[in-house]
Amino acid sequence: MSFRDILGHSKQINILKRAITGSRVAHSYLFAGPEGVGKMLVARAFAKVLNCENPPGRGEEGGDKGSDEGVDSCGACASCRAMEDGFHINLLKVEPVDGVVKIDQVRDLQNAMKYRVIEGRRVAIVDGADKLIKAASNAFLKTLEEPSAGSMIILLTSHPAELLPTVVSRCQRINFGPLPEETIRRVLVEKLAGEGLGEEDAEAFARVSGGSLARALRAAKSGEQAKKVEFLEKFLSLSPGKNDEILDVAREVSKDPDVEGKLEFLKTFYRDLVVFNEGSEGLVVAGNTAQKATGIGYRGFARLVRSFELIEEAHRNITPPRYANKQLTMEVLFLGLVDLSAPVT
Ligand SMILES: [Zn+2]
């Protein structure tokens, strides 16, 4: 994948293009942003350009500095093809194993970076940089500050707040936002229309993706998730006072063989809203669903927390040892939730 093939993130990509034309490529970058929005794609496209044997748009030496736009990889040379396959001598990758990046992995990377770069630029990508254990982070500091000649490092994270400040301060940080719903919808249609994904479904998946293409694709490919999305859409359309509609939804949920799954999903939704409401940056969920929901009344920390608690309570009530009447419990729950969603006057 080259820069030109990547959807969205044009601001971030332009920063990288300008760094190339201005010969100001940093030795260490931190790409921070929600999971599944394409940070890895951008990192790899960047590595590809830096190593392309025949890069278009870069002009002759001392050429037009204003033509950042065309900076990209050719996609056809031996280097580009090797990058595409993921087996380029200048491409090193580290990712968490069993949820952490251990000190041994950092040591291996450092050893691999000792060898002289023969051509192009060596790019080491550390995915899940927030999973570096503390000792590994500390061992890595020197390398981040001063990678070996011809080498650079790109850290990727969806939880930048969990990185050590000493790591963050050694990198040039580039923030990635959630992808626009429309972009996700378009990709879903493009990729999955052949597998029978309709326009309306694509729209619904895009809406609940939180701006993460990876999440939308996962959801769209799983039938079970499709039902949950449909349910959330229906839930969001409810408004206080329309009790018949609310009770219909409540009854439907109470008859669902997977009531508990539905309630868990609802809880996740509210947890996401709380996070979004708090203005937390870089959290997976702060996407368009949350925005849409806050737009129609789902706001206020106390109300969101109360809603979350109502769901937990209902959940406890319908499971052993309580075995409360499911239908009644769901009716009370949904009336309560919709009531709490009323716009504050
Ligand atoms: Zn090339």
Structure description:
The chain is an alpha/beta fold. The protein folds into 2 domains: 173 residues, Rossmann fold, CATH 3.40.50; 119 residues. It contains 15 helices and 5 strands. Strands 2-3-4-1-5 form a 5-stranded parallel sheet, sandwiched between helices. 37% of the residues are buried. The structure holds zinc ion. Zinc ion binds next to helix 3.
Structural key phrases:
alpha/beta, binds zinc ion, single chain, about 350 residues, Rossmann fold, elongated, 15 helices, five-stranded parallel beta sheet
Explain briefly what this protein structure is.
The chain is α/β, with parallel strands linked by helices. It has 15 helices and five strands.
CATH architecture of the largest domain: 3-Layer(aba) Sandwich
What is the helical fraction, as a range of percent? 40-55%
The whole-number mean of residue pLDDT values reads 86
Distance between the termini: 50 Å
* SSE topology string: HEHHEHEHEHEHHHHHHHHH
> Measured on Cα atoms, how large is the radius of gyration?
24 Å
Across the major sheet, the strand order is 2-3-4-1-5
Q: What CATH first level of the largest domain would be assigned?
A: Alpha Beta
Overall geometry comes to elongated
For this structure, the CATH topology of the largest domain is Rossmann fold
Question: What class would the helix/strand composition place it in?
Answer: alpha/beta
The major pleated sheet works out as: 5 strands, parallel
Oligomer status: single chain
List the bound ligands. Answer: zinc ion
**Number of separate strands:** 5
Query: β content, as a range?
Result: 5-15%
Total discrete domains: 2
Q: Supply the CATH superfamily name of the largest domain.
A: P-loop containing nucleotide triphosphate hydrolases
Low-confidence stretches: 60-66, 281-287
